[in-house]
Amino acid sequence: MTREIAFTKGHGTENDFVLVPDLDGARELTPETVAALADRRVGIGGDGVIRIVPAASAIEAEVRDQARSARWFMDYRNADGSFAEMCGNGTRVFAAYLRREGLETADEFAIATRAGVKTVRVEGEEFAVDLGPWRLTDPMAAERDGFDALVHVDDGDPFSALSVDLGNPHTVLALPETVDLAAIDLTRAPVVRPTPARGTNVELVRPLGPDHIAMRVHERGVGETRSCGTGAAAAAIATSFWAGQHLATPTWTVDVPGGRLRVRLLPGQHVELAGPAALVADGTVTLP
Length: 288
Ligand SMILES: N[C@@H](CCC[C@H](N)C(=O)O)C(=O)O
Prior knowledge:
By secondary structure, this protein is of the alpha+beta class. It has two domains: 3-133 and 276-287, Diaminopimelate Epimerase, Chain A, domain 1 (Roll); 136-261, Diaminopimelate Epimerase, Chain A, domain 1, CATH 3.10.310.10. The chain has helices at 31-38, 61-64, 88-100, 139-145, 229-242, and strands at 3-12, 15-21, 48-54, 72-78, 108-112, 118-123, 126-133, 135-136, 149-152, 159-165, 169-174, 191-193, 201-209, 212-219, 223-225, 251-256, 259-266, 270-275, 278-287. The protein has a 19-stranded mixed β-sheet that branches. It is globular. Bound molecules: the ligand N[C@@H](CCC[C@H](N)C(=O)O)C(=O)O.
């Protein structure tokens, strides 16, 4: 049996997604279907798959509760078929789709995610998203040592790292100046100790100047990607924490292999992510 699935392909700073509109909330997306859609050889190809579904039709009760403030739920899956709580770049691409299709017409609107309601603002050609509250995963260790984890990358000595929760888990490490960010081998997943219960996304950061960092990322459920929005926010939070500025509200520029993102640390421990979103193709795919 074959199945036809209508899709739109989009990306945010080259973090790419297969969008699957499910406007009456009737489609089941199994992990196998997600992995086939995301496969770059037999499917459309993407770092993730995003089902666009009315919040009121979500299976998860906590998402249905968000239907009071958000019409649409971003049902985000990683390329390997696993669920993720949040995707920062995905929220902008999701917003671009809702606007293009006339499903949202205001310049500011809310979207439902597994990590709660997020507010999106149109900023000219780009989108800014309040990713909501963040927290240090182990604040006591962070305050005491500045770090709470060790990360082995590329068979080398371990680096100290800081875990940041943005609804989804992140582990951020700052590379010493002697290590070339571009030369690190991220074809294998970095090994994080202690092992995070839910797995983690790992961000490698190189400071470039005041409020300016470069980042590479190995994403949970995907592998190395060319950008990660929640990862950029975690990287800015960790870097400002190490610089002792986490109570200030600076704007950070985060350069990723796929482009440039802006991160604003907001009062109340909120963080905003801004950047581009592109919809590049529409079609129908037939999957076995
Ligand atoms: N690329 C995303 C994050 C996607 C989810 C991540 N792989 C996870 O499992 O948490 C972003 O832009 O934030």
